């Protein structure tokens, strides 16, 4: 495949190293870059943000348990030890597949011999992009901070309010989408609210608060086995979350959600109802399938573009059984590791690649303190033990030892004292809305 | 003094407790509230922000060493253990001294028997308030985050730039004002920049960077003895800071500072050139003196208003030698502790107050790693030992054990590894400017 490309890449001078450009520094992009680190390959990583982000714990930033810096770090630092890797903070605006360059928002072009597209996914508002302002998803630090501010500010306003109806509306959160993100947010908001009402506020009662989780389908956590879903449902209800299934949202405005025949006055809406691939398919003039994902070959190259690869949420890869691979961090990470190694073998030694194979490491969701679920395919785990395992795994997956230490210290502290973390309102940010409709996975 | 007021306060019913309202939850307000905690006095603390903030370490947030949540905590949590204290997130718009109420921005009135004004200070732009947008001070988390974003974004842009002049401008920071804040910021920016250039960036050289500290007077750190000032000057120059004294700033725009006959192209300007009291004097229809500070009696009541007290940066208190007390955290804290005890003794036991006396605990400034100065009046300390003492004292002064633990862990980690902390750019906030011209000390 594309041997002439490698030679083209080398014709500028016999010692000129092959160039790999990676767009997006999420789980997939970083794994690719890591596998290409300290090789005689010239690697450039382009991202619109300066930091990577451990998205699985972002809900803890949104619910004031962790600080943004606990789960993110500058991409330059993550990749700093690899002298062959350059990092660029820039936005890609197009790909010139014939001339083999990537165009940036500042007008410059970056040449490549191999291009890796790892731009992740964005929340799908299914044609209602105007809902985004009132119902942010949970993909960026900015969104997490926005949700945190709305939640905390609503409680402060409720404390001052003398109108019982207004008080109730201020203390009502609506989470749309019953997948892992929705379940985690609903559980965490219920916990945070209960904690704040019992400890910190004088004029609020626990029954003033409502946390509503709306799912359009017949059950929450649809990808998990029934016994785990049942457990999660009970755990959510025990935490005070009202779970409403088979209910489709019709309208989202600043302070109201309409679903079916019901109207919910609310101060905080969170969107977790589905994702679509980042729109990078249009750079290549192709049409993405199934949520905009780009179909890839077994070697992860994009069909029809042998020198361009797509991984992670952007790519539509197939499992051995022919089913699409899920949009999960572990898929992106495994694809990145595979692709980095494959490019290294191909570009340096001319070795062709074995097809990519996904190894399922288990699927998890956390409902709250002492309550999580794990699905390992052959066996499952739930309850306190699953929660401890979840915490261990997530600390382990953090990017470096310092973050592991900081997050562990805070979690242990909070587990023992039942205190909460970063409950800050930055007034200048509290009223802003997410500005972009296209987001890179960072 | 004002015995009839207490009786007035008590006429609503014999069991009605006396009411103390405290505006501002900075060092002074929190100390007052703490001293009134768990007493039969009805205390209300009003602040426009939900968190207190340990301002002495705010420069470490601005220079990406600490996270905002490491040095701030919800006021509700700090005061949560005192059942007699209510917290309100609101902005005070006026005081009705005859009717004894405080008016809030939402139109409601809060009655008091004794009122404590502890609203702190704001940076003084000496009539050039339009400079604020380009030269933020360092009083709030929002400003610290804004400075952090500007610094980090400038380095990212410089890495991509091919124009040497532009590169230099992007890597030039100008700090206006040679007091402790200016010195701390200049030292920390020089350290951060040097670290990032040598470790993380591929296309930047140390001599691309300039950190310029401008002081209008003849010397920096004017309140410190000469031997310490000399040491600080040498330490700054060793760190690569250009210190320019006797230089008055004439103009600040988005990317240029003009001072004397010099023009500095820059990407980041920081203001530390002087403070003025928060404008709460106007609530009472009086004119503040010396930077807007409100003159107070020896018992800290405002001259002419025996039931209203002012403490901290807002107040113009006098030392025993008749000189004005400096605008320092330790003054605010001591005044708050004194006033809380005095109000308790007066309101509960009818005991009159002894005059307030300030005890100087020593004055300090930090230039960078292993370099700080202490002035204890009779003796001084400088260098590495002063730096360790500075670190110990500041960890000890943090609001609770969890913050002490988190900050210690991070500082020790960074001291050993020479790594840096929270280097995050949140793109939505990077372009915003401070919105308010009046800021409460929080």
TrEMBL record, chains A, B:
Domain of life: Bacteria
Domain External alternative NADH-ubiquinone oxidoreductase-like C-terminal: 361-417
GO-annotated molecular function: NADH dehydrogenase (quinone) (non-electrogenic) activity
EC number(s) per entry: 1.6.5.9
Database matches in InterPro entries: FAD/NAD-bd_sf, FAD/NAD-binding_dom, NDH-2, NDH2-like_C
Keyword terms of this UniProt record: FAD, Flavoprotein, NAD, Oxidoreductase, Transit peptide
Name of one Pfam family that matches: NDH2_C
Residues of the FAD/NAD(P)-binding domain: 19-336
Class of this enzyme: oxidoreductase
Similarity comment text for this entry: Belongs to the NADH dehydrogenase family.
Name of this chain's protein: NADH:ubiquinone reductase (non-electrogenic)
Source lineage: Bacteria, Pseudomonadati, Pseudomonadota, Alphaproteobacteria, Hyphomicrobiales
